Amino acid sequence: MKPLPAIHAILLGVVLGGPVLGLAETPKTGFLVVAPDRGFLGNRETRMVFEEFKKSCPATLTLVGRDYTGVGGEYSAYVIRAVEELKRAGTTEIVAIPLFLSAADPLLNRVIPTLPAYAPGLPIRWAPAMAEDYLIAQIVLDRVKALTQQPESEHLILVGVGAMDEKSERALKTDLERLLAYVQRYKQFREAEVVVYYDRDAEGTDKKNQEIKARILSQIAKQGRTLVVPAFIGPKFDHTMALTAWLARQFKGLNVAYRQEELLPHPNVLLWLKKTANRYVAAMPAETGVVIMPHGATQPWNDAVERIIEPLKAKYKIEMAYGMGDSQIIQDAVTTLEQQGAKRIVFVRMYALEHHVKATTDYILGLSENTPGQGHDHDALPPEQIRSAALFSTFGGYEEDPAVADILHERIMEISKDPSQESVILLAHGAKTEEDNARWLSVMNANIERLKKDPHCAKLKVIQAATLREDWPELREKAIAEIRQVIQEASKSGRVLVIADRLYGSGPYKKVLNGLEYTMNEKGLAHPLLTRWLEKGIERRHPQ
Q1: What are the helix (H) ranges across 340-472?
Q2: What is the distance between the alpha carbons of residues 96 and 57, in angstroms, rounded to a whole number?
């Protein structure tokens, strides 16, 4: 996560307002939500989401208004009261969470340097502002989806507020453009842009805002529909005395699609608050869950996987998410765990190699901003990212565990009779690119080297790795021809043993090898040793 420009040192862990706690001490973290004073209706919205947030952790709320002048000003009483409440709760360090879209917000930057004076002796850290998290970008995307009809012929304008000068305007625009870029991952508009209105107290604000309005009107005058979407948390004294209502009046009677919905209220704001808090507090064992994602297939295939996982359910909260990175299935599993109190989730890609489906699931989980192609269709839109307050760690790649060689040894022994007269072929799924397929074969060959250390396997005529490259017709046909040729030649001078080197079953192997002389062990790698692989991976990431 990139540090906020205005409070870079704080986000690097610089402690303000007091001495650092001794390493032997366990700090009790309290959260101070710092929010703009929005007036009656807006503050009611803020308090509603805050009251839900404080159910999950020690937290207080302070409002700061546009007239904030620091210690001794009229807003000091709210800050003092909030800090004192945290002290009474036994807080030994404070994490301030800014309920502000941007770290460049001028009001936020007036508050930051004054906060230590309210809490002498307590270390204070600032969490990142809202625009840093994709959960907030999802709010904007939701607002856009509610308005758009044919994005390819529409013009989208995201509207921000609060600039005091050209420097702050540029900084605020940077965060809004991050939100816009997120929207454009999923919706391709004819044109899209960001505008930032100036604060009423800024020098030359009327002239600046008239120029911005003229810019918007010039876009509205173009052919096609224009969408105007608020991307701010603004004043809302009542429904008519609100910044969103003022914005609506600017475009009354024009060909503009507009709804008076800003960033708050929205469910993602609560998720963002909880997720932010989770980053600063260690989870207890009962607050960690596990999502396991195997490929999934028919019921016998799934049952074999469930038998591997079953022994772990007495120790961990586990949910299944079968598939190749299905966002909705993953969301359902994560939501179920969160409803059981999970704040951290270990996500297991139960695939052969560590990198399999990693790019896709890292994006879905919000661990990466890279947008991979979905499945075999690299022209598809990015998958939806999940909506969750949980923090994630991940692992995968069971075939890279040395214990897989022990499973393969068992499978060979189950069908081997006279090793000196037998050739073994380990047959796996395979990958599309030559680089990925070579990597797969390399892992299989590492297991073969382990097998050769066994006295029985050392007597085998040959142990060879092969991949079918099943999902790509041209590559598959070539692979089938090569594998059939190997089996035909080997069967002339002895038995050929084919070992299904896949999680369960033999997939299409019997069909593509029809007519050849061989003996196959089609059990696959479903084995108690994979239970141990899962357990080891979870233990490394699960608090004890």
Answers
A1: 358-364, 403-415, 434-451, 455-458
A2: 13
Share of the chain above pLDDT 90, in %: 83
- The whole-number pLDDT of residue 372 equals 83
pTM listed for this prediction: 0.90
Instruction: Kindly state the average pLDDT of the residues 114-122.
Output: 94
- Helices 166-186 and 134-147 pack at an angle, to 10 degrees, of 70
Token code pair at residue 272: 């963002």
Instruction: Lowest mean pLDDT of 53-67, 75-89, 194-208, 456-470, name the range.
Output: 194-208
| Helix orientation angle between 267-278 and 40-53, rounded to the nearest 10 degrees | 50
**Can you tell me the distance from the alpha carbon of 178 to that of 324, in angstroms, rounded to the nearest whole number?**
28
Our measurement of the distance from residue 184's CA atom to the centroid of its chain's CA atoms, rounded to an integer in Å, reads: 18
**Closest-CA residue to 534 (of 288, 284, 292):** 292
504 and 305 Cβ atoms separated by less than 8 Å: yes
Q: How far apart are the first and last CA of the chain?
A: 27
Tokens of 307: 């038998």
CA 300 to chain centroid, in Å, comes to 31
Give the type of residue at 61: L
The predicted structure's pLDDT at residue 379: 59
Euclidean distance between CA atoms 284 and 339, whole angstroms? 16
Residue 334 has pLDDT above 90, yes or no: yes
The tokens for 467 are 């991949």
231 within 8 A of 101, measured Cβ to Cβ: yes
Predicted confidence at residue 4, as pLDDT, reads: 39
Q: Which two tokens stand for residue 91?
A: 């807080």
Query: Which pLDDT does position 527 carry in this prediction?
Result: 96
DSSP state at residue 120: T
* Cα–Cα distance for residue pair 208/390, rounded to 1 Å: 42
Q: How many whole angstroms separate alpha carbon 501 and alpha carbon 400?
A: 12
Strands (E) in 458-502, as ranges, are 462-467, 495-500
Lowest mean pLDDT among 1-10, 156-165, 280-289, 411-420: 1-10
How many other C-beta atoms are found inside a 10 Å radius of the C-beta of residue 45?
18
Higher pLDDT, 220 or 32: 32
Report the SS3 class of residue 236.
Answer: strand
Average pLDDT value over all residues in the chain: 92
Query: Which of 24-38, 186-200, 446-460 is least confident?
Result: 24-38
DSSP of 153-181, one letter per residue?
Answer: GEEEEEEEEEE-SHHHHHHHHHHHHHHHH
CB 138 within 8 A of CB 387: yes
Q: Which residues contact 300 (CB under 8 A, 6 or more apart)?
A: 504, 505
* Residue 5: Cβ within 10 Å count: 14
Residue 275 to residue 264: CA distance in whole angstroms: 17
Q: Which of 131, 215, 201, 136 lies closest to 162, judged by CA?
A: 201
Q: Give the count of alpha carbons within 13 A of 438, CB side only.
A: 3
Nearest-angstrom CA–CA distance, 245 and 261: 9
